[in-house]
Amino acid sequence: MSSGRTRTLGTRSQDDSGVREAARILLFTPIVTASRAPESLALIRRHTTVLRTMFSTHLGYHLIVEPSFARLVKTPPEPTAPTRTLTRRSGMPLDARTYTLVASACAALLAPGVGEQILISQLVAQIRADAAEQGVTLSDELTERRRIVAALTVLIDWGVLAETDGTVAQWGDDHGGEALLTVCRPLLPHLLVRAIGPSARPEDVLTPDSGAPRRRLRRRLTEEPVVLREDLTPEELDVLSRERSELARLLNDNFGVVLEVRAEGALAYDPADTLSDIDFPGPGTVKQAALLLIGELVDRTEEDTAAGEFDWETVDSTLAALTERHKRVWKTEYADAPHRLRADIVALLTALCLVRAHATGMRLLPPAYRYRPRVSTTQLALPMDGQEIRHER
Predict the structure, then answer these.
(1) At what angle do helices 234-242 and 213-223 cross, to 10 degrees?
(2) Where in the chain do CATH 1.10.10 domains reside?
(3) CB atoms < 10 A from the CB of 389, how many?
(4) Are strands 309-311 and 361-364 parallel, antiparallel or unpaired?
(5) How many contiguous H segments (helices) and E segments (strands) does the chain have?
(6) Could you tell me which CATH number the domain at 2-73 has?
(7) Which of 181, 196, 174 has its CA nearest to residue 105?
(8) Which member of 25, 120, 128, 370 has the lowest number of beta carbons within 10 Å of its beta carbon?
(9) Domain 285-392 maps to which CATH number in 2.60.120, 2.60.40, 1.10.10, 3.40.462?
């Protein structure tokens, strides 16, 4: 009798663990395809029924699971939530024209006659033909080709396209290059969170679902790095106060994250450190400079700056001093373009909910005070001085 009970409990524990892992995969990667992640898709398919109920009940998300893909349809983020832009594989954000090409490529793949495979030359010809109908001319210059490559690479990363023979990059670099692409056509209609008709307005597409305060709060905690009390409605604040224990249990059981509530707000952090799409602190000029900038501004706040507000002149002068101090190990392109460094740093810190920028300056948000850097410099023989940056939390 006892051995049977042990087996039952063990099976239930394994099922719970599998559901949690599948849910984490979908939160981090809302599109999972058989071509790119067959094991992840198999896990999701195994627990489809439980996952659908869980996401719908707790977060108001719709889960679509087909033999070739799974798509977690989330709701638009809250207005105060940090935005996430599409990027090239180099990390550079896509410009507006490339975003348009992503949409144009999806439309071209849905054109009559397009099957499960298509040559890149045929796809690009369809994109250009569709653009011409709208009075838009796409040139064959290298810059335009690279935009097309970036747009198609987004679809490859999503699993909409797969490079079967040849590569998209080769087509972009070689004027006569060719590539055969395999298309996951069933996924295409489900890329958009909401349908866009001829009369659709941006606010119709981007406005988040109102929903119950309890569900909205859960969504914010699972999607945003930090949720500040100043950004919550009175109803959401009431839920956070009254149902804190139940909220903590739900987030941990279903997604493996731990709720932390402070006077300024709340966050749900991942002990496994695998759910965040931005590692911070981390290597690279922008992340190192951002960490050091926070340290400098926190020190000034403790001295005489009210509420962590800093005008752009103060931010720029602080960054200039840091750049001079670390110019031997930071990218030279930033030394020659200080405003670009500031823009990249502010974008990073805003995405992490560590600062909030406005026309005349920026404000340090409470989570920024958790980062207090220490700098130690080690001399390397070749080729230059190296620098290690640590932080205390």
Answers:
(1) 80
(2) 2-73, 96-190, 285-392
(3) 20
(4) antiparallel
(5) 15, 14
(6) 1.10.10
(7) 181
(8) 370
(9) 1.10.10
Q: Name the burial class of residue 280, with classes exposed (0-12), middle (13-18) and buried (19+) by CB atoms within 10 angstroms of its CB.
A: middle
pLDDT digits (tens, 9 = 90+) for 280-304: 888 888 999 999 999 999 888 765 4
pTM of the predicted protein model? 0.83
Predicted confidence (pLDDT) per residue in 143-200, tens digit: 888 999 999 999 999 999 999 998 898 888 766 678 999 999 999 989 887 666 666 6
CATH class as words, domain 96-190: mainly alpha
Token pair belonging to 35: 């071509």
Summarize pLDDT for 327-385 with one digit per residue, the tens. 888 888 887 788 899 999 999 999 999 999 999 999 999 889 888 655 555 554 444 34
**Which amino acid is residue 115, in one-letter code?**
G
From residue 98, alpha-carbon distances to 86, 148, 169, 329 in Å are 10, 7, 15, 32
